[in-house]
Amino acid sequence: MVLSKTASDSDESIHSTFASRYVRTSLPRFKMPENSIPKDAAYQIINDELMLDGNPRTQKQAVGVGTVGSSEAIMLDGLAFKRKWQNTRKAQGLPYDKPNIVTGANVQVCWEKFARYFEVELKEVKLSEGWDTPIHVDAASGGFIAPFIYPELEWDFRLPLVKSINVSGHKYGLVYAGIGWVIWRSKEDLPEELIFHINYLGADQPTFTLNFSKGSSQVIAQYYQLIRLGFEGYRNVMENCHENAMVLKQGLEKTGRFNIVSKDDGVPLVAFSLKDNKRHDEFEVAEMLRRFGWIVPAYTMPADAQHVTVPTEWKEWQEN
Ligand SMILES: *Cc1c(COP(=O)(O)O)cnc(C)c1O
Question: Which domains does the chain have, with CATH numbers?
């Protein structure tokens, strides 16, 4: 992993883990720590904590669940939305057999899966103001970017209509594949009837996931990244990604052959199209780059911009 900025107070090298201030002063319990800590300290803290965690006492306050990724998170959350809506309609004596969900035209395929699997009509509308409807934020990538480099952007529970948020731990959360998260604003937003209570593991354990068993390694890895990097570490990584994207963009512009179609702010990626695609198109560019080991997907755009194809390049936070 490459971090561009490494000089800060918390990066001083401390070799005696147990003597270090990182292990002696406790970390905030429900927040990401502000600063990074050395890897040995992060490891030791988690290791000690897991040892003490032999009995599965569950956190009943938490209204959220770890999932395999954002797709599972979105299935569960969509289901919660649907059930809550149905319960409200039933109570009002109104029909509840035709739920719909409104999305933008550019949503990830998991939303179409959700709609088809759970029999909810998917409606695409042009976004406009003035709606009073509960909102789910699909923050699969952005959820681990915006808080660190666009803290003033209001997209989360600061907005009263936002009821739930998902994020992929295995994207900008910096964990290897197999982890996502979904959180609900309050217990009221997750109908109790969807939660199963089991005691197979010795204590009451509420579960709301599609799969029952799941490895804990990604959860631990996410925890490790959060406390090891802290807020400053994630901010450094995201700033670095953004700077890389800007370098890439400038390089592409310098060739004079491409139109940049992505905005500078947002997910750190560069989307571009060919200025002149009479002789070669974006799919050929993608194909040629692939021969050199660069995976640069070429996409067609949503319905009203079908004529535009765009290869997107981004520099991963990790080097392979
Ligand atoms: C990646 C992505 C998903 C699906 O997430 P997985 O973690 O791959 O299941 C959903 N929505 C958006 C916006 C995504 O970028």
Answer: 1-254 (3.40.640.10), 256-315 (3.90.1150.160)
